[in-house]
Write the C-alpha coordinates for this entry.
Amino acid sequence: MWTSCCNRSDPAVMRAAAIWASVIAIALMPIVVATQSPLLAWRDTIYIIGGFAGIIGMAILLLQPLLADGVLPGLTTLQSRRVHRWLGGGLLAAVIVHVSGLWITSPPDVVDVLLFRSPTPFGLWGAIAMWGVFLAAGLAVMRRRLRPQVWRNLHLSLAVVIVVATLLHAVLIEGAMGQWSKTALAVCIVFATGFVLWRRVKPAARRVQR
Protein backbone atom coordinates (compact mmCIF):
# COMPACT_ATOMS: atom_id res chain seq x y z
CA MET A 1 0.00 0.00 0.00
CA TRP A 2 2.76 2.39 0.96
CA THR A 3 5.30 1.26 -1.64
CA SER A 4 5.02 4.29 -3.89
CA CYS A 5 5.11 6.63 -0.93
CA CYS A 6 8.08 5.01 0.79
CA ASN A 7 10.23 5.28 -2.36
CA ARG A 8 10.11 9.05 -2.13
CA SER A 9 11.96 11.46 0.10
CA ASP A 10 11.35 11.58 3.84
CA PRO A 11 9.28 14.82 3.68
CA ALA A 12 6.88 13.10 1.28
CA VAL A 13 6.56 10.14 3.64
CA MET A 14 5.90 12.46 6.58
CA ARG A 15 3.33 14.39 4.58
CA ALA A 16 1.52 11.19 3.58
CA ALA A 17 1.56 9.95 7.19
CA ALA A 18 0.22 13.29 8.42
CA ILE A 19 -2.63 13.23 5.88
CA TRP A 20 -3.63 9.69 6.81
CA ALA A 21 -3.37 10.42 10.54
CA SER A 22 -5.57 13.50 10.15
CA VAL A 23 -8.23 11.71 8.10
CA ILE A 24 -8.34 8.74 10.48
CA ALA A 25 -8.44 11.01 13.55
CA ILE A 26 -11.35 13.02 12.14
CA ALA A 27 -13.23 9.84 11.22
CA LEU A 28 -12.69 8.21 14.62
CA MET A 29 -13.31 11.31 16.73
CA PRO A 30 -17.13 10.98 16.97
CA ILE A 31 -16.79 7.26 17.72
CA VAL A 32 -14.42 7.96 20.62
CA VAL A 33 -16.66 10.76 21.92
CA ALA A 34 -19.71 8.50 21.72
CA THR A 35 -18.06 5.82 23.88
CA GLN A 36 -17.90 8.39 26.69
CA SER A 37 -21.47 9.62 26.34
CA PRO A 38 -23.66 9.43 29.46
CA LEU A 39 -26.64 8.85 27.16
CA LEU A 40 -25.55 5.23 26.75
CA ALA A 41 -26.02 4.43 30.42
CA TRP A 42 -29.70 3.45 30.12
CA ARG A 43 -29.67 2.10 26.57
CA ASP A 44 -30.00 -1.58 25.59
CA THR A 45 -27.00 -3.32 24.07
CA ILE A 46 -28.78 -3.81 20.74
CA TYR A 47 -29.65 -0.12 20.57
CA ILE A 48 -26.04 0.85 21.32
CA ILE A 49 -24.71 -1.48 18.62
CA GLY A 50 -27.17 -0.04 16.12
CA GLY A 51 -26.23 3.50 17.11
CA PHE A 52 -22.51 2.89 16.73
CA ALA A 53 -23.11 1.26 13.35
CA GLY A 54 -24.67 4.54 12.25
CA ILE A 55 -21.67 6.52 13.54
CA ILE A 56 -19.26 4.19 11.72
CA GLY A 57 -21.29 4.59 8.54
CA MET A 58 -20.98 8.37 8.81
CA ALA A 59 -17.22 8.05 9.33
CA ILE A 60 -16.97 5.96 6.15
CA LEU A 61 -18.52 8.83 4.20
CA LEU A 62 -15.40 10.89 4.86
CA LEU A 63 -13.16 8.30 3.22
CA GLN A 64 -15.35 7.32 0.28
CA PRO A 65 -15.00 10.43 -1.94
CA LEU A 66 -11.27 10.66 -1.25
CA LEU A 67 -10.78 7.02 -2.19
CA ALA A 68 -13.00 7.27 -5.25
CA ASP A 69 -10.91 10.15 -6.57
CA GLY A 70 -7.58 8.58 -5.58
CA VAL A 71 -6.32 11.64 -3.68
CA LEU A 72 -5.11 9.83 -0.56
CA PRO A 73 -1.33 9.28 -0.67
CA GLY A 74 0.32 5.86 -0.70
CA LEU A 75 -2.37 4.16 -2.77
CA THR A 76 -2.42 3.55 -6.49
CA THR A 77 -5.62 4.42 -8.34
CA LEU A 78 -6.50 0.73 -8.54
CA GLN A 79 -5.86 0.17 -4.82
CA SER A 80 -7.81 3.28 -3.88
CA ARG A 81 -10.87 2.26 -5.87
CA ARG A 82 -10.68 -1.28 -4.52
CA VAL A 83 -10.74 0.02 -0.94
CA HIS A 84 -13.59 2.34 -2.00
CA ARG A 85 -15.62 -0.71 -3.08
CA TRP A 86 -14.83 -2.57 0.15
CA LEU A 87 -15.88 0.39 2.26
CA GLY A 88 -19.02 0.71 0.15
CA GLY A 89 -19.91 -2.79 1.28
CA GLY A 90 -19.01 -1.77 4.83
CA LEU A 91 -21.33 1.23 4.57
CA LEU A 92 -24.17 -1.01 3.40
CA ALA A 93 -23.53 -3.38 6.32
CA ALA A 94 -23.40 -0.47 8.79
CA VAL A 95 -26.77 0.83 7.55
CA ILE A 96 -28.35 -2.63 7.86
CA VAL A 97 -27.02 -3.07 11.41
CA HIS A 98 -28.09 0.47 12.32
CA VAL A 99 -31.66 0.00 11.11
CA SER A 100 -31.89 -3.56 12.49
CA GLY A 101 -30.82 -2.39 15.95
CA LEU A 102 -33.45 0.33 15.95
CA TRP A 103 -36.04 -2.12 14.59
CA ILE A 104 -35.45 -4.58 17.42
CA THR A 105 -35.75 -1.90 20.09
CA SER A 106 -38.58 0.15 18.55
CA PRO A 107 -40.35 -1.42 15.53
CA PRO A 108 -43.20 1.16 15.23
CA ASP A 109 -40.74 4.08 14.96
CA VAL A 110 -38.72 2.29 12.27
CA VAL A 111 -41.87 1.47 10.29
CA ASP A 112 -42.86 5.15 10.37
CA VAL A 113 -39.40 6.13 9.14
CA LEU A 114 -39.34 3.55 6.34
CA LEU A 115 -42.77 4.69 5.14
CA PHE A 116 -41.76 8.38 5.31
CA ARG A 117 -44.41 9.20 7.89
CA SER A 118 -42.11 9.89 10.83
CA PRO A 119 -43.01 13.09 12.71
CA THR A 120 -39.32 13.83 13.28
CA PRO A 121 -37.33 15.45 10.41
CA PHE A 122 -34.18 13.47 11.24
CA GLY A 123 -36.11 10.25 10.68
CA LEU A 124 -37.16 11.31 7.18
CA TRP A 125 -33.59 12.27 6.26
CA GLY A 126 -32.39 8.96 7.66
CA ALA A 127 -34.84 7.09 5.43
CA ILE A 128 -33.64 9.01 2.37
CA ALA A 129 -30.03 8.22 3.22
CA MET A 130 -30.83 4.54 3.76
CA TRP A 131 -32.67 4.12 0.47
CA GLY A 132 -29.85 6.02 -1.24
CA VAL A 133 -27.32 3.51 0.09
CA PHE A 134 -29.49 0.59 -1.02
CA LEU A 135 -29.89 2.07 -4.50
CA ALA A 136 -26.15 2.72 -4.75
CA ALA A 137 -25.46 -0.90 -3.79
CA GLY A 138 -27.92 -2.15 -6.40
CA LEU A 139 -26.38 0.14 -8.99
CA ALA A 140 -22.93 -1.26 -8.19
CA VAL A 141 -24.21 -4.77 -8.89
CA MET A 142 -25.55 -3.60 -12.28
CA ARG A 143 -22.44 -1.61 -13.18
CA ARG A 144 -21.35 -3.84 -16.07
CA ARG A 145 -24.76 -3.50 -17.73
CA LEU A 146 -24.54 0.29 -17.90
CA ARG A 147 -22.42 2.58 -19.98
CA PRO A 148 -19.49 3.93 -17.92
CA GLN A 149 -20.61 7.56 -18.17
CA VAL A 150 -24.19 6.69 -17.19
CA TRP A 151 -22.99 4.64 -14.24
CA ARG A 152 -20.65 7.40 -13.03
CA ASN A 153 -23.34 10.06 -13.24
CA LEU A 154 -25.90 7.94 -11.39
CA HIS A 155 -23.38 6.84 -8.77
CA LEU A 156 -22.20 10.40 -8.18
CA SER A 157 -25.77 11.68 -7.90
CA LEU A 158 -26.66 9.01 -5.36
CA ALA A 159 -23.48 9.75 -3.43
CA VAL A 160 -24.51 13.41 -3.10
CA VAL A 161 -27.99 12.40 -1.92
CA ILE A 162 -26.51 9.99 0.64
CA VAL A 163 -24.08 12.57 2.00
CA VAL A 164 -26.62 15.39 2.28
CA ALA A 165 -29.32 13.19 3.81
CA THR A 166 -26.93 11.50 6.23
CA LEU A 167 -25.49 14.76 7.50
CA LEU A 168 -28.93 16.29 8.02
CA HIS A 169 -30.02 13.09 9.76
CA ALA A 170 -27.00 13.16 12.08
CA VAL A 171 -26.92 16.88 12.83
CA LEU A 172 -30.62 16.97 13.77
CA ILE A 173 -30.17 14.17 16.33
CA GLU A 174 -29.05 15.03 19.85
CA GLY A 175 -27.26 11.77 20.52
CA ALA A 176 -24.10 10.16 21.78
CA MET A 177 -21.73 11.57 19.16
CA GLY A 178 -21.45 14.99 20.73
CA GLN A 179 -22.28 18.18 18.89
CA TRP A 180 -18.76 19.49 18.28
CA SER A 181 -17.26 16.21 17.05
CA LYS A 182 -20.30 15.51 14.89
CA THR A 183 -20.18 18.99 13.37
CA ALA A 184 -16.45 18.75 12.69
CA LEU A 185 -16.88 15.42 10.90
CA ALA A 186 -19.85 16.76 8.93
CA VAL A 187 -17.88 19.81 7.77
CA CYS A 188 -14.96 17.62 6.68
CA ILE A 189 -17.32 15.32 4.76
CA VAL A 190 -18.82 18.33 2.97
CA PHE A 191 -15.36 19.62 2.02
CA ALA A 192 -14.16 16.18 0.87
CA THR A 193 -17.28 15.57 -1.22
CA GLY A 194 -17.28 19.11 -2.61
CA PHE A 195 -13.60 18.85 -3.54
CA VAL A 196 -14.14 15.61 -5.45
CA LEU A 197 -17.25 16.99 -7.17
CA TRP A 198 -15.27 20.03 -8.28
CA ARG A 199 -12.52 17.82 -9.67
CA ARG A 200 -15.09 15.73 -11.57
CA VAL A 201 -17.30 18.56 -12.84
CA LYS A 202 -14.54 20.96 -13.88
CA PRO A 203 -13.19 18.85 -16.80
CA ALA A 204 -16.74 18.22 -18.03
CA ALA A 205 -17.48 21.96 -17.95
CA ARG A 206 -14.35 22.64 -19.99
CA ARG A 207 -15.38 20.11 -22.62
CA VAL A 208 -18.81 21.75 -22.90
CA GLN A 209 -17.23 25.18 -23.38
CA ARG A 210 -15.12 23.85 -26.24
Residues 53 and 94 are 5 Å apart (CA to CA). The chain has a mean pLDDT of 87. DSSP finds eight helices and no strands in the chain.
